[in-house]
Amino acid sequence: MARAIASNRATATTKLNPLKFSPLADIVGTVFVDRNRNGLFDPLLDLAVPRARVLLAGGREVLTDARGRYSFPHVPTGTHALRLDPNTTPYPPLHVPQDRGLSGTQSVFVRGLTSVDFPLAPLGGQIDALRRTT
After folding, report:
1. Using CB atoms within 10 A as the burial measure, which of 4, 7, 21, 42 is most buried?
2. Which residue, 90, 122, 120, 127, is CA-closest to 104?
3. Could you tell me the sign of the dihedral formed by the alpha carbons of 90, 94, 95, 97, in that order?
4. Which residue(s) pair with 78 in the sheet?
5. How much is the pTM?
6. Paired strand residues for 76
């Protein structure tokens, strides 16, 4: 005859991954040819650069979409370096304060949603013509 025996002891095993509880952020940005060299993306003037590769320190990389946009989701909060792969675009990067003298590299403190754009210099010069007739 089988009987069920009640016990007041129970055991459980828990596997904890501390990275699941660390604060995460997202990095978004645009790679574009900055025709007026103001460092801001002007949709009616500037040219988005598709398929440019952006590298995040630590090994992650993404390609920009047809509108020059990219994103790195779930990035730990803190200081990170991003680099635009110079082999994926014929345009040289413009110098911005975040590059600290390293053209095409930017260091940023990431918290929440952080935007990091890569403005590029146009290949040719800009010519303005003025015509006067009397």
Report:
1. 42
2. 120
3. negative
4. 110
5. 0.74
6. 24
CA 75, chain centre distance (Å): 10
Q: How far apart are CA 46 and CA 119, in angstroms?
A: 9
List the pLDDT tens digit at each of the 134 positions of the chain.
677 777 677 778 888 776 667 778 999 999 999 998 888 899 899 999 999 999 999 899 999 999 999 999 999 999 999 999 989 998 989 887 777 777 788 889 999 899 999 999 988 766 777 788 87
CB contact set of 121 (below 8 Å; sequence gap of 6+)? 33, 34, 37, 91, 92, 93, 94
Rounded to an integer, what distance in angstroms lies between the CA atom of residue 52 and that of residue 113? 21
Under DSSP, is residue 28 helix (H, G, I), strand (E, B) or coil?
strand
Residue 46 is which amino acid?
A: D
Q: Supply the DSSP symbol for 111.
A: -
Residues linked to residue 80 through DSSP beta bridges, in sequence order:
108
